[in-house]
Structures are given as structure tokens and as C-alpha cells.
Write a structure and sequence with these properties.
single chain; 386 residues; alpha+beta; Arc Repressor Mutant, subunit A; Dipeptide-binding Protein, domain 1; five-stranded mixed beta sheet; four-stranded antiparallel beta sheet; 10 helices; 20% strand
């Protein structure tokens, strides 16, 4: 990015000359910029036109000119970062921020959290690692699972605080008396994120793929046949009665993706940018349920943010500041929490070294020995339980 490169050049100049006026030759500037004298003159003129420095030359070869850096690199970086964000150039803004990793937290903090961007509510979240591919059938990370649940819809959905599955792509469903046949009736006018109409035939194709995939197959193992008796009705015929099918269809492995374009879904948000440094979700205008309040969600991948120690990746501080820009200096933390994890010990019986009975005996001995309490768990995040 040309602007980032120009700021990097100015930063090099400022660090060598400082903020006071100095006498310098064009040859010395060319050495600082690692370029020819001709290009150095052009660059100085451009920086002067932008108001970053003043330059007063004297006639005659080798004469010293007066150069004065008018702004600090930090001031310019913050100013340019704001301009790039207002222009919607989020990738450029992140590249600009990475120029000064030592002050990355201070530089990004005013732009993270809840913001009004171009009149729309935007949430920017700093994150400590690159996100996995947002595929419901391959991902393992909890952050990715949360994102995917906003990108893709299911026939049903589960809502916090309600143990019963709720309508999603299907507005209601019927179960036969014996529990062997389920019919899910689709909403009309459903749309994929790309604006394409969502059809029952497409969902049937996706469900047939899910029946064959090892990640989703267990959820559909009891399904004998899936059919489309009506364009807006998907029918499941089961081997055995199953009154939990609606729950399973709301789980992550059974979310509906476009049969030909798996990255496209029908959830409340659509994926508009997926880069190693920035993931951007925007509200899906054609969403079939209540639209979310936020218009945009951005994950800014900032692994250079300082952490408490070498093992602090799982405790990486995600700071989200809510309030007016003028109040940031007085902001204080109101909540701090950590997601608990777990560890487990499993024996691989596939090699045939141990029988199943021997494996069970060995696990029992390990539990009774107290060995689990001495496992090296960093940061005391997980407490082993026998």
C-alpha cells in the first residue's frame, strides 16, 4: 500500500532528524530513503504538499536546505488510520496500525469495540490468532463456531434459555404419530447471502451431502430417506422413532450451506472479507428473521498485542470499550472473564497393544494413582479432575 510505504519513509526521516528544523542536503536525504537524489526530491515535495514537513532549498549543488518535520509519526498514523476507516479501507487501516507494533494497543483502542461507522453500528473485536476456515464441517475453534452460527441458518435453531428448538428456515414442522416421519415446512422468499433465492431442492442437496460427511453423519444416522414432496416441504423418513431430530438439525454440523458455494449461507450476517488479518461480517439484508442491531462485525487479528506471558494465548485480553470518544481516557474495566476448558486422556486401542478390558483397567489405575493432579497445566486454567 503506497500510503503505508510513504508513512514508513517519513517515520525513518523523523527518527533521524527529529522535530526541530535541520540543515540537510538532498544527497543525505537520498541516503536516508535508500533512493536516488531525483526520487528523494520528488518524495520531499510530496511530503511537503501533504503538510507533513516544510522544505526550503537553496540554489547551488551541494547546498544545504532547511527541513522541518511538522508532525510526529504517531499523529500521522492516528489521522490516516481514521481516514482509512471512514473510507471503508479496513485492510489498509490494519496495515497502517501494524507499522508500530509496540504501540499497537494504544493506536487501535480508540477504533475497537462499538463504533458508529458511516452512520451504522459496527463492532470491532481484536483477536489473538488467525481464524480457521469458516466451514461448519471442519472447524474446531470456539470463535469460529460462534461466527459460523451467525453465517449459516438451519432448518431449526436453538436459543439461549429455551430448551426447545425454534423455527429457522422452516417455519414449523409436523411429526407422524409413530415418530417415523418428520415434515419441515420452509418459509417462502428465502435468500442466500448472494441474493440468490434459496430453494428446497438446494437444501435437499445439502442434506444429502451431510448424510455422507463423517462430521454430520452421526446426527443423521437414523434417517432412512430425505425427500421433497413439495417445493417448500422437506420430509425425513426414519429407521426408528426419534423425537430429537429437530434438536439435532439445529446443531452446528447440520447448518445449511449453499450446495455449490459452501461459503455462502442464509444466516443474519454474510462474510464479506476473510483475510489473515481481518474478518468482516455484514448484515444480511435478506435475512428471514429479526435483523440484528449491529450492521457490521469485524475481527481484527492482532497477534502483536501484548500478553501477560508466554503461555497467555488463551488469556489474550480482548478489550472492547463502550462510550464516547472523549470518554476513553476515563474508561475502566467493568467485566473480566475467562472461558474454561478441559483436558482428557484417551487410550488408542486400534494398534492392538491393549485389549478393551486392559484399557479400562489402565484408566482406572491412572485415576486412582492421582497422576492427573500432577499434569503440567499452564496458568492454572484447567483443574484436572479424576
Amino acid at each position: 500500500m503506497r500510503l503505508v510505504h510513504r508513512l514508513s519513509q517519513y517515520q525513518r526521516l523523523y527518527h533521524q532528524l527529529g522535530s526541530a528544523p535541520v540543515a540537510v542536503t538532498i544527497g543525505e536525504l537520498a541516503a536516508m530513503f535508500y533512493c536516488s537524489e531525483r526520487h528523494a526530491r520528488t518524495l520531499v515535495q510530496q511530503l511537503q504538499d501533504q503538510g507533513w514537513l516544510s522544505w526550503h532549498s537553496q540554489p547551488g549543488r551541494g547546498k544545504r536546505a532547511s527541513l522541518h518535520c511538522l508532525k510526529t509519526p504517531d499523529e500521522l498514523r492516528a489521522q490516516l488510520l481514521q481516514q482509512l476507516l471512514q473510507q471503508g479501507n479496513h485492510q489498509g487501516a490494519l496495515e497502517m496500525a501494524q507499522l508500530d507494533p509496540q504501540h499497537l494497543q494504544d493506536l487501535l483502542s480508540p477504533h475497537l469495540g462499538g463504533q458508529w461507522q458511516a452512520g451504522s453500528p459496527t463492532l470491532r473485536i481484536p483477536y489473538y490468532r488467525t481464524l480457521e476456515a469458516l466451514d461448519p464441517l471442519t472447524l474446531t475453534g470456539r470463535a469460529e463456531q460462534h461466527l459460523v452460527s451467525t453465517l449459516h441458518a438451519g432448518l431449526t435453531r436453538l436459543m439461549t434459555g429455551n430448551p426447545e428448538p425454534q423455527p429457522d428456515l422452516a417455519h414449523h414442522w409436523q411429526i407422524s404419530d409413530r415418530g417415523l416421519r418428520w415434515r419441515f415446512f420452509l418459509r417462502s422468499q428465502l435468500r442466500w447471502h448472494n441474493g440468490e433465492p434459496l430453494t428446497g431442492h438446494q437444501l435437499l442437496q445439502t442434506l444429502e451431502k451431510l448424510q455422507r460427511h463423517p462430521r454430520s453423519q452421526p446426527s443423521l444416522a437414523n434417517v432412512a430417506r430425505i425427500s421433497l414432496p413439495h417445493p417448500l416441504c422437506i420430509q425425513f423418513d426414519l429407521h426408528l422413532p426419534d423425537y430429537w431430530l429437530a434438536h439435532r438439525l439445529a446443531e452446528l454440523p447440520c447448518l445449511m450451506t449453499h450446495p455449490e458455494l459452501p461459503a455462502i449461507g442464509a444466516g443474519p450476517f454474510k462474510l464479506t472479507l476473510n483475510e489473515p488479518q481481518l474478518v468482516r461480517l455484514e448484515q444480511h439484508a435478506g435475512y428471514h428473521l429479526q435483523h440484528p442491531y449491529l450492521d457490521t462485525i469485524e475481527y481484527w487479528i492482532t497477534p502483536d498485542l501484548p500478553t501477560a506471558g508466554a503461555d497467555a494465548s488463551c488469556q489474550h485480553p480482548v478489550r472492547i470499550t463502550i462510550g464516547q470518544q472523549d470518554d476513553l481516557a476515563q474508561a475502566r474495566p467493568v467485566q473480566r472473564s475467562m472461558s474454561l476448558g478441559w483436558c482428557y486422556l484417551a487410550l488408542n486401542l486400534r494398534h492392538g497393544v491393549l485389549s478393551e478390558a486392559q484399557g479400562q483397567k489402565l484408566l482406572m489405575l491412572i485415576q486412582q494413582s492421582g497422576l492427573l493432579s500432577h499434569l503440567p497445566i499452564p496458568n492454572s486454567v484447567i483443574t484436572p479432575q479424576p
